[in-house]
Design a protein that fits this description.
By secondary structure, the protein is α/β, with parallel strands linked by helices. The protein has 10 helices and 9 strands. It has helices at about 45-50, 75-80, 100-105, 110-120, 125-135, 150-165, 180-195, 210-215, 235-245, 270-275, and strands at about 5-10, 15-25, 30-35, 60-65, 85, 170, 200-205, 215-220, 225-230. A hairpin with a 4-residue loop joins β1 and β2 (about 15-25). The longest helix has 18 residues, at about 180-195.
Length: about 280
């Protein structure tokens, strides 16, 4: 298992809020899983636990075959270097050059000396440009990040993870700032990376149509709990409407343009179209 959560609870002691309540999830190597659900369902918190940036209050967590909070600091750092995280709003310093932001994906694997040298003279500009080109940003490699739009910055954050080539990719609303065409193309690259390297991909997505199209397995969350976990082919309109009942039963989609094209296995488009039309 790449990721194993057993009876996980995440409770914020400052206000007593329970973000994750008794979550159990097993994700195997190379799987591609989409986590969906209304705002405040706990999707981001689940990914933060999986990415070892937050420690669960209760339960057992194993990531890439290791229990992160039982590791010494050096081993935990090495484990985190094998995890790539795509943030909804990438924490990229505004004055940083795009090439440096992308190369930061390898900082966990580089020595401190090589990392410092790369700040002055980028260690692998060609590699960074190749990752950016996959997302339509190959001509922006030498730009400063504060000259990019929100959507472009989001793609820079994804390019950093593509360049990192981690064993586990965690993407938190990775295409929220992109139009339907770019969102579709960007998820295609994340899925292609998973297929090419055998990496596991777990993504939280607001747009249910994109989740159904690109991911073979769907996890539905509501109020900090996993309410269903199944193959995309088995998800029904009634299940989606119930999941989003607090939002009037309206199932969020990114746009009809995102439904066209090939998806995870035969019939992905027809399934997504049928569900979205209800």
């Amino acid at each position: 298992m790449t990721l194993s959560l057993q009876g996980v609870v995440l409770r914020y002691h400052a206000n007593g809020f329970t973000a994750i309540a008794d979550a159990t999830l097993q994700v195997g190597q190379g799987e591609r899983v989409a986590v969906i659900g209304p705002s405040g369902a706990g999707k981001t918190s689940l990914l933060r636990i999986a990415g070892t940036s937050v420690r669960a209050s209760e339960g057992r967590v194993a990531v890439l075959g290791q229990q992160p909070w039982a590791l010494p600091a050096s081993a935990l750092k090495a484990l985190r270097a094998r995890i790539g995280v795509v943030h909804q709003a990438p924490p990229i310093p505004p004055r940083l050059r795009v090439v440096t932001a992308v190369l930061a994906g390898k900082l966990g694997a580089w020595s401190a000396l090589r990392a410092m040298k790369s700040l002055l003279v980028p260690a692998d500009a060609a590699g960074a440009q190749a990752a950016l080109a996959r997302l339509g940003l190959g001509d922006r490699v030498w730009e400063r990040c504060d000259r990019l739009s929100g959507g472009q910055l989001q793609r820079v954050g994804i390019a950093r993870v593509l360049y990192q080539a981690p064993d586990l990719m965690l993407a938190d609303e990775p295409v929220s700032a992109l139009d339907p065409t770019l969102a579709d193309a960007t998820l295609r690259e994340l899925v292609a990376q998973s297929e090419a390297t055998g990496a596991t991909l777990v993504a939280s997505l607001h747009a249910v149509d994109l989740a159904l199209k690109w991911f073979g397995r769907i996890v539905g969350m509501r109020e900090g709990r996993i309410v269903f976990d199944m193959a995309a082919a088995d998800v029904t309109p009634a299940m989606l409407q119930d999941l989003y009942a607090a939002e009037g039963g309206v199932v969020p989609v990114h746009g009809v343009d995102a439904i066209a094209g090939a998806g995870e296995g035969a019939g992905a488009d027809s399934r997504a179209s049928a569900l979205m039309c209800r």
